[in-house]
Amino acid sequence: MKTISDEKIAAIRREKQWLGILYGILTGTGYALTAWGLDAYQLAEAHAYLPWGRFVFGLAACLVLGGLAGWLASRLDNGLVAVLVWSLVGCALAIGMGWLAFQGNPTLLNWFYPDLASQVEFSTNPAIQIRTGIAALVSALLGGAVGLLQLNLIDSALRGTYPIQRALSLWLGIIPFVGAGLIAGDGLIHTNLRDPIVQVHSALQYAQEHRGQEIDIYEAREHGQTAVRALGDLQYQPYRLAISSYDEYLSLVWVMVDFGEIQTRCSVLEKKLNYCEKPARITATHIPPELTQSAPTGTTPPTSESPTAHPATDNSPISDNPDAAGNQPVFLADQASNLPETLNRYLLNVTIEPDQSRFQGALQLEYTNTENIALEQLFFRLLPNGQRSYGNGSLNVGEVKVGGAIQPTSLSVDDSVLEVELGKSVAPGKQVQVEMSFQGQVPQDFSGSGPMNGYGIYNYSDGVMALANWYPILAVYDEQGWNLDAVSFIGDSVYSDMATYQVEIDLPEDQVLVSTGVIQQVATGEAHKQYVIESGPVRDFFMILSPNFEGVEEQVEGTLVSSYYLPGNRAGGQRALQVAVEALETFNHQFGPYPYTELDVVDAPMQNASGVEYPGIVLIGDALYAEYEEKAFAVTTAHEVAHQWWYNLVGNDVIEEPWVDEALATYASGLYLESAQGKPALAGLMDYYQERYQRTLDSSGDHPIRESLTYFETSPDPRAYGGIVYAKGALFLDALRQEIGDAAFFGALQRYFQDYRYQIATGGDLLTAFETSAGASLDSFYQTWGFTPQP
Description:
By secondary structure, the protein is of the alpha+beta class. It is 41% helix and 22% strand.
């Protein structure tokens, strides 16, 4: 019997150990290439900072740990031990991979680029720990397979005649670890930090490749051009990218875009580029920094005595020059206090066909659940479907997606409420993205049915298309649940939370567009123009257009006030501008600063209403312009301007407590007259309101000021609404002012404005503000006017 010498056995063992080391190095390399290498290559292609940094550390760890594991398993020559050793190595590599991604990467960035330290904020949270734990489990299981194969593969390699044969025999062991790298590394850890960078890079590359070309609005949106247009000419400059921060579940990731001396951020929600902030200092807040930008230089009132006029062909103050339009601030400095930490954001694009009285568009809502309960569904208002004050138009919604998945919907309340199932509950503080397409048909010439067949707010007449609530707007959720009231025929129907808007609008080139917000870009194509408009925090987004608008404008206290009027109404347009400017100055002093950089007053065909308010824009009925010298014209204009404070900036439930904003705006028009013409003018207006209130008493009897719209709509005489809420409400406030004195009265309004700016207040909040300012109980006075104490 032939025996093997001890020397031969020792040589075989040594060869096994060397083959074990080689096996470990090859296997570790396979893991590194898939777990870090694929990621690094794609990051390098996307112009990311330190794309190969993690790969270098990961490869070193794989080579060292793989080599040690292969050597140890071969040395001990025990299959169970080999499985255990390689499982531990797989687990350790996955944990290290998670650490490198979420702690090591920002550390590396701060080492090599210390200037980025304040702009990169990574955190470890339970969701990331769970993700890393799953990656560790996957790597451990597949690492066990590597160990299970090792001894057999090494024995097979020992039988090889040539070194190359032996090496090739070991490659089979790479397969499990390649799978581990793909699943644990690229799938669970890196893809969520890489894809947002790739999304931003792809959008910027597309912009550079198509610079100067006309792009279809839907194609532009598909390739993220709506988002990167906020960057202006910077989108065509060299850049480098890095993850800046992310939410708990990595569903919302912020990508820093470094253009050298200028940095900004872009948000990627559910792996889709959402929007980019205008270049500004990076902050750690969810509020886009453009909301706190300082007004541009030269925003003091002009020295010239007359306003600047511009014909419709100028389309001013909306400039046709993209360079002039880009990156315009929408918010004045130091006016962002009291903003909610998280604002919902609407991304809208719409194509308008005025000659067909129709439009079609798409909505993307970045929604954050700010309630204290998880939500299973969201409710959107399709207000034009409720008709009444909107006429007989329509707003129809197509397919709805939540988080990219199609979800069922249902309609109710005269088809004015759209219920959207979320698929899974959204916990407090969590975000979800809702997408839907929609199309609308606009009534022509106030067509509708019933005694109040439209105000003209959703209407096409005399070449003017007014588009109020033309898109699905999220309903308000409060302590009573979702507010889903029917559309009113005697009052306003928009009860909404603050949100920010980015709206891309395509319309015929001859149209002059006036809207909420500030234009950021104008692109001119064949017979069409595309506008990109940004808003600060507002209640909703309104727009109106006509080829016939002319205008005048004037700068006052940092705000550009513009008056748009129809042909033949130039004198009325100039008077509207004068009143708006004076009212803005008055209310800035009496209530608190108007925070937006623009305010528009627009001449519009209307019926059943003298004027209507929207964020940053007010409509004045065209019929009033013929008698612009009358007091009614100034009172109406001032009333609607006052609604910028009482309705938009300080919100209230306009269905349940319409008096809160309407009584304040009505009395504010008197405050404007007092400021412009003296106390007798206010007294004269109060006399008029007393007569109007008396007529209501004679015809309908008395009613409490604080009753709801539904109360008045279902009363025998709905016309009592105006005499009570407007006239009696103004008389109440005037009497209250006399009761507590000017210091306490205006102090209360300023306190109320400061405390509830950008929020939703109640009538009780307003009454309490007066008591606090007066330093005494006003229960007796309130009860005299029908305000019973709240339970």
